[in-house]
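Review box. Two proteins, two foldings.
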Amino acid sequence: MTIPSSSGQSSSTWAHACAACKHQRRKCKSDCPLARYFPADQPDRFVNAYRHFGVSNILRIIRGVRPEDRDAAMNSIMMESNIRARDPVGGCYGIICKLELQLRDLYDELYDVKRELALYHAQEQSMLNPNADDAALDKEGY
């Protein structure tokens, strides 16, 4: 972010330090790797990530991925740290377990609905073709 001077030209001075630099009480340089992901007006995003990962680990993760994958890596870091802040015990694993339980319940419900639908379909067929049962009995010799 640049501040326009009175002459209309912009200087390369940053108006606000990013949340990471502000938290660490250091000057935010124009090439700060965290400024893009932790704007000054959203300090909670940084605090959660800082508590869960630490600055050095966040920087190591960012440097360890390809430049085109850095946004996805940072989204993952922020999502995991925000979830951990909301649920310190279960975190992401707790959410995964809850979703698996919901999925199991939905599969059970789908099975019950399909079974009931098959029952209604069989009843409909017997009502449309009432002699089919008699013909089947005649074939078997009963």
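Next protein.
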Amino acid sequence: MTIQSTSVSSKQSHLHSEAVYQTLPCKGYFPNQFHLKTIPQNIGWYLAGFADGEGSFYVTFRYRKDYTWKWRITAVFNVANKDRVMIYLFKKQFKCGTVRDIGNDKYLYEVDTLNALQHVVIPFFKEYRFFSAKKKKEFAIFQKIVNILAITPRTFSQIKEILKLRMQLGSDRINLFKNLDTSILEVIQKEVIDKNTTQP
């Protein structure tokens, strides 16, 4: 009976924690909600270590007819794992981003808004640094990309620089990126009247 009671109590605690997590902001970053110093250090270092092994930094290009250069460029940080509570812990501490079920009993935490990346994700990983050389390199490249994306209006040369940095960020997919980048540049070049044209 004692074992059964403990099991029920644990289950109720888990459901309560999950309910609390689900009331957090859904996507963007809300000023004054995230405070780096309020994250307990043991939690901060644990999240950083978890992201070192399970996290990803990448950039997407999505075709959009209403954009001057015809591409929407988005920087993304995400973490995927089967441990649902662990994934929601990122959302609870970062107070931004989204969590979704991606199948095969795995959950994905993702931050793809520029404001949240600038004011939450990057400051967090500057404070709680990665240990692996690979992730340190990826994070440094990712910061450069986010800095360029923060510049508006954006120039053709800056988009080319993002493509160059993305190639370094995904060195394991370099052949795929070469083909994609060629297609992206071909579409952009059709829109270029002169190199001073800018994207709103």
